Amino acid sequence: MEPSAQDEVIRSARDFWSGFDLDGRRAALDSQGLELQEAHRRTMTSRKALQEATRAFKAQGETEQVASLGPLLKQYQKEVDTLTRRARAADSAFLSLYKALYEAPDPSQALDAALALAADKPAVKEASRAELEELEDLREEISTLKNQDVTVRKLEAELEQWRSDMDARVAQQVEQREAEMQSLLQSRMMEVADRERASDDRLASMRTQLEQSKAVADQAERRVFEAERRAEEAIAAARTEQALLAADEESLEATQLALRSENESLRRRLKDVEEAQRYGEDLHAGSRGARQDAASSEMELAQLMNVVAAERNAKEQYRLQVENLQSIMKSEQTRTAEAAAANEARLKELEKEIDARPSTEEFTKMRQELQLLRQVEFNVLPEAEPSADSLNGSGDIPAVAPSPEQLLIRKLRKLEGEMLAHKRRSEAAEGQVSSLSEEVKQLKQLAEERRILIGRLEDDLSAASNSSSHTHGGALHASKAKRSEEAEALEGILAEEDPQAAKPISSPVKDPNQ
């Protein structure tokens, strides 16, 4: 018989009897044997009782036999039923055992093949020793593999912990940034709303003040024009009246000169009359008339002098009134000029204040910033391109402060940079883990190959042990048990490395003597 055929015969016999599980069936077979023995004992007891009942039935008379025939038949029927059940149980036990042993191979062929293999026992022992040495080396490799696997698991646990920490940290930072941006947005919105209300109020107040100032300026201008008109009219009237007074004064002066000349002539006449009075009474009437004329002339002259004095007083009053009107006009002009200057200064101050306050463009820009803050939801926005004014501006112009959305974009990009760095480190760690996993996979494949080889050696040793003599049975069983323990230890290590890939290395070899 060829070695392969011998191996096949031994393997088939071992596989069958290993699957037959004779030790496991012993309890069932023992139970069946005890049941059969108990049934046989009960049958013997009932048979003796039936024999005694039959003897008693035969010893009775006919009338008594007729009366006891029914119970006797029941005993016989009960015995028949018991025997039937016993036969069925025996048949069932026999058939179950027969079915289990129907396909059993002939153990003599396996024993012959084992005896043939026993001749090769020294070579098998030598090969077994070499395999044991190789198994020891494999144990060392597996221990190294186990250490590497522990390292890989530790790295995987650290990586998972790092990932969870990073996720928690990123989530916390995002929540913190979101809360900060929400508070900043609320504060900016409130500030912008307050500034908007204040600007509206101040703008309305400034417009009211400007309108009032314009009204005051218009009123002052109208008053100035009215005062100038009145002053010009008063000056014109005063000048006209002064001209009339001058004409009257000239006429009065001419009249006064005429009256003076007439008075002088009358005085001369009166003097002549007084001189002539000394020489005659004839001249008395003429002198009286001359005196009367002189008295009337003096009275007229006095009246004219009074009129001239009155005219002079009126002229002086008109002059004083004109001077008063001129002074009033000058004071009114001065006051109006001061009011106009004050209004002009107030207008300039209001214009400066308006220039200092936000313009319409700035207010629109502020609204746009507020709209941007409302639209930003922690998404990456495009970087704002610098304007030409900022690029071409001189160094004296101060740099414009970054807008809130630019600050938010910078923060988000910084977080993205940190995330990319962490991702790169994570990818590097994953690369190391994958390389270690590949090494573990290769070592597992090597261990699987060694396990298959050990299984074959175990099969060979089992076949050799089945065919060995009883003299070498003890040593061979000890060596086989030792190798089985080593195989089980190797299987346990493989199970720790990969529970799914771990398979039984070999089944325990049944002792053919059992």
Keywords:
single chain; 514 residues; mainly alpha; Helix Hairpins; 10 helices; 88% helix; 0% strand; rod-shaped; disordered C terminus
Notes on the protein architecture:
- It comes from Pinguiococcus pyrenoidosus.
- There is one protein chain.
- The longest helix is centred in the middle third of the chain and has 157 residues, at 121-277.
- The protein has helices at 3-20, 22-59, 62-102, 107-118, 121-277, 283-356, 360-375, 388-392, 404-467, 473-497.
- The chain contains ten helices and no strands.
- The chain is rod-shaped, with a radius of gyration of 74 Å.
- It is mostly helical and 514 residues long.
- Among the domains are: 11-97; 176-366, Helix Hairpins, CATH 1.10.287.
- Helix 5 runs antiparallel to helix 7 (360-375).
- Mean pLDDT is 72; it is low at 378-401, 469-477 and 497-514.
> Approximately how much helix is present in the residues?
over 70%
The helix-and-strand class reads mainly alpha
Mean pLDDT metric: 72
**Which ranges are low-confidence, i.e. pLDDT below 50, for 5 or more consecutive residues?**
378-401, 469-477, 497-514
CATH topology of one domain: Helix Hairpins
CATH class of one domain: Mainly Alpha
The string of secondary-structure elements, in order, is HHHHHHHHHH
What is the strand tally?
0
Pfam family, one: CUX1_N
Keywords: Coiled coil
Protein name: Cux N-terminal domain-containing protein
Organism: Pinguiococcus pyrenoidosus
